[in-house]
Amino acid sequence: MYRPINHGYIEAVIGPMYSGKSEELIRRLKRAKIAKQNVVVFKPKIDDRYSKEDVVSHSGESIDAIPINKANEIYDYIDNKVQVVGIDEVQFFDEEVVSVAVDLANKGIRVIAAGLDMDFKGEPFGPTPKLLAIAEFVDKIQAVCSVCGQPATRSQRLINGEPARYNDPIIQVGAVESYEARCRKCHVVYK
Ligand SMILES: Nc1ncnc2c1ncn2[C@@H]1O[C@H](COP(=O)(O)OP(=O)(O)O)[C@@H](O)[C@H]1O
Ligand SMILES: Cc1cn([C@H]2C[C@H](O)[C@@H](COP(=O)(O)O)O2)c(=O)[nH]c1=O
Ligand SMILES: [Zn+2]
Q: What Gene3D superfamilies does this protein's entry cite (predicted)?
């Protein structure tokens, strides 16, 4: 993939839970660090599953991050030395994360954002769809369906082992105790 040097742009890594978004984000950010680039990583404070301060993948890969509540707090950590900004769990941020990403890219920063494209209902999640529309590069990746083994594009929320209901709250932080990766055919939401 061609990526211009010294120009700002936005990369989005999206997909269901367990598809490897955080692993891919961490991989890109670690390579940028190897290239001696100045990297800053952000995560929403609400995501305290594996760590309050690090981005951690389901497989245990990790990188230091700054936990923030709102997208515009990113500016508190940006100076003219910053070259790469990573944002994990972008779906949890307010819509302003899109204009912040655009602004940083316009300033010459490489912005890499990872997050869920769809919620547990299979519907577009938070600011992610807008981010996809304005990103230069989008990688939509799949997990493995926990039922049939086919590529999984959706996140199945389970409550006491049963599929969640359509009117359940959108935000519920969790991992294997409450979510599975599923393909379109095996994904179930009770209406
Ligand atoms: N159903 C699954 N499909 C693929 N990987 C899975 C699955 N369940 C657990 N994993 C693990 O999750 C890892 C990906 O974790 P992570 O990068 O945190 O994903 P994401 O950020 O997309 O939720 C995989 O490398 C694998 O070890
Ligand atoms: C589908 C869905 C997920 N969530 C939460 C569950 C996890 O805390 C994160 C996703 O983490 P991952 O790094 O992609 O595995 O999002 C939610 O709040 N609502 C949902 O509908
Ligand atoms: Zn399936």
A: 3.30.60.20, P-loop containing nucleotide triphosphate hydrolases
Q: What is the ipTM score, two decimals?
A: 0.99
Instruction: Please tell me the number of the ligand nearest to residue 146's CA.
Output: 1
16 known ligand binder: yes
pTM: 0.96
84-112 pLDDT, tens digit per residue, is 999 999 999 999 999 999 999 999 999 99
Q: Say if domain 9-141 classifies as CATH 3.40.50.300.
A: yes
Catalytic residue positions, numbered: 89
Side-chain half-sphere CA neighbours of 96 within 13 A: 8
Q: Ligand 3 centre from 68 Cα, in Å?
A: 35
